[in-house]
Q: What sequence folds into this?
């Protein structure tokens, strides 16, 4: 005997038909999603990572105008910046402006610059040592300089020395103004990479 349609429906009830959301419910869901996105994105943007677009030629050949970077803002909360690292920081004279340069001098060191040669004196090397730099753009920096850094000061330079406004021009950089270091280069795609700008 074939089971009746009524019996089938009783044993296997059909799912209740979906009730379409009202316009008010849809707007409420969208608002919830928006609030959640803001709660997640803003702390990441402020405290973990943020985008940065290179402007100008001061870091050629390591970085070029228009390079799109993601800046790591976390690492320097647990460790100190080291010589040779590329950093993004606030310009001391205009803290709303961000620059990208390479660290040459660390706190309490004395820096001697002659052309593109940099000699550094510190506790470990009281007689000084010549800093073996990586890729510069080939231009020769003009002018000699000697400066001693404070306990919370850094000396930063652009890789393109003849086209860089850096510590030679506006002085030392306070630790508190360092924002972070490049973690990713996303554009151009051909230069995609992690911790870009590192000297080999």
A:
């Amino acid at each position: 005997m074939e089971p009746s349609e009524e019996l089938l429906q009783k044993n296997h009830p059909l799912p209740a038909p979906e009730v379409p959301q009202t316009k008010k419910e849809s707007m409420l869901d969208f608002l919830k999603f928006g609030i959640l996105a803001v709660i997640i994105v803003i702390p990441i943007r402020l405290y973990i990572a943020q985008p940065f677009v290179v402007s100008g030629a001061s870091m050629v050949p390591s970085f070029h105008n228009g390079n799109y970077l993601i800046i790591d803002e976390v690492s320097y909360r647990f460790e100190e910046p080291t010589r040779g690292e590329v950093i993004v920081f606030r310009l001391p004279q205009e803290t709303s402006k961000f620059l990208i340069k390479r660290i040459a001098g660390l706190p309490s060191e004395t820096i001697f610059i002659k052309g593109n040669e940099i000699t550094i004196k510190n506790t470990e090397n009281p007689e000084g040592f010549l800093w073996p730099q990586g890729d510069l753009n080939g231009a020769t920096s003009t002018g000699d300089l000697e400066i001693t850094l404070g306990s919370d000061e850094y000396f930063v330079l652009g890789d393109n020395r003849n086209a860089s406004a850096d510590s030679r021009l506006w002085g030392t950089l306070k630790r508190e103004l360092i924002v972070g270091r490049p973690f990713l280069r996303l554009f151009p795609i051909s230069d995609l990479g992690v911790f870009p700008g590192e000297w080999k």
